[in-house]
Amino acid sequence: MRMNRFMSLLLRRGSLMLALGSVCCAAAWGKPLRVVATTSMVADLVSQVGGAHVKVAGLMGPGVDPHLYKATASDVVKLQRADVIFYNGLLLEGKMTDLFTKMARTKKHVYAVTDAVPSDRLLEPPAFEGHYDPHVWFDVKLWAHGARAVIEGLSAADPAHKEDYAARGAATEKKLAELHAWALAKADELPAAKRILVTSHDAYNYFGRAYGFKVIGLQGISTVSEAALADMAKLVDYIKSHGVKAIFVESSVPHATIKRIAQDAGVRVGGELFSDAMGTPGEIENGYDLGTYEGMVKHNLTTIVGALKSVLSPIRAHRVFFMKRR
Ligand SMILES: [Zn+2]
Fold first, then answer.
1. pLDDT digits (tens, 9 = 90+) for 174-197
2. Thinking of the domain 2-179, which architecture would CATH place it in?
3. Architecture of domain 188-325 in CATH?
4. What is the whole-number distance in angstroms between the Cα of residue 62 and the centre of ligand 1?
5. In angstroms, what is the span from residue 93 Cα to ligand 1's centroid?
6. Ligand 1 centre and the CA of 273: distance in Å?
7. Alpha-carbon gap, residue 178 to 169, rounded angstroms
8. Is 153 in contact with 222 (CB distance < 8 Å)?
9. Could you tell me the CA-to-CA distances from 256 to 227, 230, 316 in Å, in that order?
10. Residues 5-52: pLDDT tens digits?
11. pTM, 2 dp
């Protein structure tokens, strides 16, 4: 009888521990926290704050368009197994938003990093039809707010390392403040009249506000709707009448339309910008890794400022760009 009681107590304790293990996390067992992030920018932010305490799996690699991305069967498995999930939010991940909302209702730690951005700093351009613009990462200072959401999310899932997350989070915010200062100084190399940025889709509104550029995107809020011919003709007129010297293609949007507009307007394609995805990890350009958020920001600003400042003739510059791509 006594033995039976002892056994049943042990069993109850055992099942309690198992239950705790399942609702808590890998970190409780000394393993890194299993984190799933959607875009590469979010994955980078989580890695910076989490350090060795997290193992981050990003769902969307280089060149992937989050507006159109649908979760694959293996993504769903990863999401189900994750201890914590971070996504951009503000409907950037258009086709996955419902999935995250549902998961957040269950036991999951699910967080949108843009929830930490003060809402009075969010843009709501008319073209976005009543929605906030989700492309917050283009303003480095604004994106730094996301570190708060990551610190809170990781600490809630793994309270044992709360202090580490706070310290690493503060270091990340400091690094981002330095990057923002670098970006401001880089933009200042260009006179205000030359700061006109023409790209494929309306991703750069935050960039424009932060670094003083007038921004014109061919497609609206997302890449879902393709550019109409009337819009293309209007853009060609605009480029000609404003003396814009170069326009830009984006890594996660097909290039054909922008190339056609450049041809019609008699300007050059000034280079490829990263918009909704970072570059390939390990690909180094001027000493920075294009597969990091820092590399993405530096590549974009260097490319934009370089092309708009440049006095190369359209034909020569076009040749330089395509030679570089080979
Ligand atoms: Zn976008």
1. 999 999 999 999 999 999 989 999
2. 3-Layer(aba) Sandwich (3.40)
3. 3-Layer(aba) Sandwich (3.40)
4. 14
5. 9
6. 12
7. 14
8. no
9. 11, 16, 20
10. 434 443 444 333 333 334 455 656 678 999 999 999 999 999 999 999
11. 0.84
